[in-house]
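One record is given unchanged without comment:
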Amino acid sequence: MATFSVSSPAVSPPPSRSNRWVEYVVGVGVVASLGALLFCVFRGRIMRKLREGRGGSRKGSVKEEKLLKLRRFEFEELEKATKNFSREYLLGAGSFANVYKGVLESEGEIVAIKRPHADSYTSLDEFRNEVKLLSLVKHKNLVALVGYCEETTGNVRERILVYEYVPNGSLLDYMIGRGGRSLTWRQRVNIAIGAAKGIGHLHKGMKASIIHRDVKPSNILIGDGMEPKVCDFGLVRSGPVGDRSHVSSQIKGTPGYLDPAYCSTFHLTPFSDVYSFGIILLQLVSARPVLASNRPIPDSHIVQWVTNFLLNFV
């Protein structure tokens, strides 16, 4: 019978005290070196977190331009672009803000500059939240935010939004024939489809849905190739989240386009935008104003006019 011999491994003598001291020093040195290396690697991130904890820098207060992928303009630059916000450059005036055409001196780019009235924002945080929200809006049928200006000049706090410039006027201009403008039936259909895609992206195409709250013909601009672009997000609200069906909100919008359910309940839903868009579709088909000044109030709204027309037709 074969036998196997198993040899015991050699046992090393215990290390001397001097050897253990050398190993201890080497170990501490390695750990310290690794710690220093990690600190160098993550130093920028650590310092940034510390600065944010102390309130952040002035430019970092709007989540940094690089993060938002927006340009921060100086007020002086926008003054030059609009010739000191002259009436010559005024594109439109509203209760919330004036919009100017601007030509950026550095690159010659044409932009639309929205300068709100002094009391339009209740706080700086409100403006910053709007900038953050609008920076997420990316769709060919939505007007893109190019940048912003957040600056105090004297006693005036400037909170300005800079958008891409859309050259061919608004859908309202075509509806009322301003400047001899008109639309073919094919153009009307294409504009309706494009605007619907833009509004649909706000509702369904973003991580957090957005409700426009002021969908109307003057807020649908016409770009190159008659491509529609929904604009003016001054009244936007984040939509309901989770299993909530609505958000509660003060009634804001344009008479004639306001959803009756929103007006009676103060419950704002994406369907409020859908109602407004439906009114625009009726206008595109009928070539009528939303409110007819030459008719009594109960029959002045286009919905009532369409209802009466259908009842008489049947």
Remarks:
- DSSP finds ten helices and twelve strands in the chain.
- The radius of gyration is 31 Å.
- The longest strand covers residues 145-153.
